[in-house]
Design goal:
By secondary structure, the protein is of the alpha+beta class. It is built from two helices and four strands; from the N terminus they run ββαββα. The strands form two sheets. It has a two-stranded antiparallel sheet. It has a two-stranded antiparallel ribbon with strand order 3-4. The relative contact order is 0.18.
Length: about 130
């Protein structure tokens, strides 16, 4: 519902008894967005979802991987307006990995800032 397309179910590759997890059990979902759907998702993320996070002061600019790609961890899926809070059985988080064609972190930061992602200014020098 958040991405606008059907998610691919990810299954456990091996059993872990302490988590009561068996091989082949569904453990998550994954979606790859490209093209117009990707730009629409980034716009909704930057303009609607991120400002709804409690005590949000901007994205951490240190979360680049060294090759211009950026990762965000979100603790609650209910920040997206598509999610009906009354129909959610449990609050779950999600990880967002933004893969860019930038070769350095500085180029990736400039690209994502131009796309509208709100980075925290004070932490960039740390």
């Amino acid at each position: 519902m958040i991405s606008g397309q059907r998610a691919q179910v990810r299954r456990a590759t091996k059993s872990i008894a302490s988590f009561k997890l068996r091989e082949g059990m569904p453990v998550g979902a994954r979606v790859t967005l490209r093209g117009a759907r990707m730009y629409e998702f980034l716009d909704r993320l930057a303009s609607i979802a991120l400002p709804r996070i409690r005590d949000f002061r901007g994205l951490d600019p240190r979360s680049f991987d060294g090759r211009g790609n950026y990762s965000i961890g979100i603790r609650e899926q209910i920040i997206f307006p598509e999610v009906d809070y009354d129909r959610v059985p449990a609050i779950r988080g999600l990880d967002i990995a933004i893969t860019t064609s930038a070769e350095t972190d500085e180029q990736g930061h400039a690209l994502l800032a131009a796309l509208g992602l709100p980075f925290a200014a004070s932490r960039r020098d740390s």
